[in-house]
Amino acid sequence: MDKGYEKEQFTTISFKVSVADKFRVFSKKMGASNSMTLLMMLDFFETNNLSPKESIGPTVHTLENLIKKRVSAVIAILRDMEKSQTRPTVAMMQSLFQEAEPKNKPLLVEKNRVEEKKVRFQEKRDNDNQT
């Protein structure tokens, strides 16, 4: 039963057989009784200020396709921004903040003073040539 309309009586409206059959199929798809389906349809037209005689203009599918195109354009813009701006900036920031590994060098190094001095050039002695 239709909630809120249990005590109301039925009335007869004459429809063509093809229209009545089409309406019954539509009512089954909606999952409501014929009376409730017709009531929902009337409420829809009244709420949205629509008339069956007027053209709605862009259909839902047309609007959906338009929105999808705009969303795709926004996604393309964001991807371009990510490639050209965000990734290079992140790479620079990571390289700046990456901690360089310290080399294991002692801070103070003692020089060996005991090393022999190597002589690269020697003077000729006159004694060596005379013998």
Q: What do you see in this structure?
A:
- The chain has 131 residues and is an all-alpha fold.
- Among the domains are: 11-54, Arc Repressor Mutant, CATH 1.10.1220; 57-97.
- The chain is 54% helix and 0% strand.
- It has helices at 17-30, 34-47, 60-97, 126-130.
- The protein starts with 16 loop residues before the first helix and ends with a helix.
- The model has no long low-confidence stretch (mean pLDDT 79).
Give the CA-based shape.
rod-shaped
CATH architecture of the domain at 11-54: Orthogonal Bundle
Rg for CA atoms: 47 Å
CATH class wording of the domain at 11-54: Mainly Alpha
Sheet-strand content, in percent, reads under 5%
End-to-end CA span: 141 Å
Mean pLDDT: 79
**Element-by-element helix/strand order:** HHHH
Question: Class by helix and strand content?
Answer: mainly alpha
Query: Which range best describes the helical content: under 10%, 10-25%, 25-40%, 40-55%, 55-70% or over 70%?
Result: 40-55%
Main sheet?
Answer: none
Q: In terms of per-residue confidence, which ranges show pLDDT below 50 for 5 or more consecutive residues?
A: none
CATH fold field value of the domain at 11-54: Arc Repressor Mutant
**Count of individual helical segments:** 4
Report the count of strand segments.
0
Oligomer: single chain
InterPro entries: BfmA-like_N
